[in-house]
Design brief:
Arc Repressor Mutant, subunit A, D-Maltodextrin-Binding Protein, domain 2, 8-stranded mixed β-sheet, two-stranded antiparallel sheet
């Protein structure tokens, strides 16, 4: 037996109104089409459900027994549909993203503010997490997307490169750096750095190794905010991605590193096979625009 909701809705409409003509009008189909659907249902259940005359349509005993069951089934399905619609609407109105504390404190506030101008009914929730936690939160489905520098691909994770972020030299504000500085100028310079297992630092150390500077003893910290505070306090220079200059809270000057210019791929990551939040594409575009905006 393969009874459909279409058959049940046709049956209950005829039973409620006592007329194939009025029922057909109410559910917007032809009378012939409605009669065919009811006949299909009668064939499915192996019983006649209506006694038909030229003037009246009445339920048979079998029809009277089916009516409360069909009504309850349809009410349950309609209720479930409404619940799912509410869940889907809530999901569409909320976007949850994960980034590192540095990005969360410097870039995301401006991106969320700009996004709200065109999407005022979408609430963006931020999870500021340690870099090592972001992919796990995406994989577990706790966030819609993660953003950051992820050097290696991960099983079950989709990576979409959004843009390239050039590496900059950061120095105390009073040192007044020129617009650009060659990597060779860093030979023998006092540097502060991120932990050696940080993916950004691995790229930096690869280039520093080419000028014989990779294994120098230097203070190491775990996040960019601490790194920039160390630079401001004149513990040394640091090499950072370009988004570090967007915060403006530290008295630090920046210069582009050249010879060569090195950039980092900045990614959006999502869980493979999971439906993508409809708001994510526009938010990623806004975030990309903020990250690409020159700082005066």
């Amino acid at each position: 037996m393969n009874i459909t909701t279409r058959q049940l809705r046709a049956f209950t409409a005829v039973a409620r109104l006592g007329s194939f003509t009025r029922a057909a009008q109410q559910i917007h189909m032809t009378q012939a089409g409605l009669s065919g659907i009811v006949r299909e249902l009668e064939t499915q259940v192996g019983q006649r459900l209506f006694d038909r005359t030229t003037r009246t349509v009445t339920l048979t005993a079998s029809g009277a027994a089916l009516l409360p069951i069909a009504t309850q089934v349809l009410q349950s399905l309609d209720g479930a549909s409404a619940i799912l619609d509410n869940i889907g609407s809530a999901a569409r109105r909320t976007l949850t993203v994960a980034t590192t504390p540095m990005l969360s404190s410097t870039v995301l506030p401006g991106a969320i503010r700009a996004f709200a101008v065109t999407h005022p009914y979408v609430s963006v929730n931020i999870r500021d997490l340690d870099r090592s936690e972001i992919q796990g939160q995406v994989d577990a489905g706790h966030v819609d997307a993660g953003f950051g520098v992820f050097l290696g691909a991960a099983v079950g994770i989709d990576r979409v490169p959004l843009l390239k972020l050039p590496l900059l030299l950061a120095a105390p504000e009073e040192e007044k750096l020129p617009t650009s500085v060659s990597w060779k100028k860093l030979k023998g310079a006092k540097l502060v750095a991120l932990a050696v297992d940080n993916p950004v630092q691995r790229v930096i150390d690869e280039q520093l190794g080419r000028i014989g500077q990779a294994n120098e003893e230097r203070p190491c910290v775990n996040n960019f905010n601490t790194l920039l505070a160390m630079v401001e306090a004149a513990f040394g220079w640091a090499i950072v991605p370009s988004f570090a200059r967007l915060g403006g809270r530290y008295k630090v000057s920046f210069a582009e590193l050249t010879g060569p210019r090195i950039s980092l791929d900045f990614y959006q990551i999502t869980k493979k096979g999971r439906s993508v939040n409809p708001a994510l594409g526009e938010f990623s575009t806004t975030l990309k625009r903020i990250l690409s905006t020159p700082v005066s």
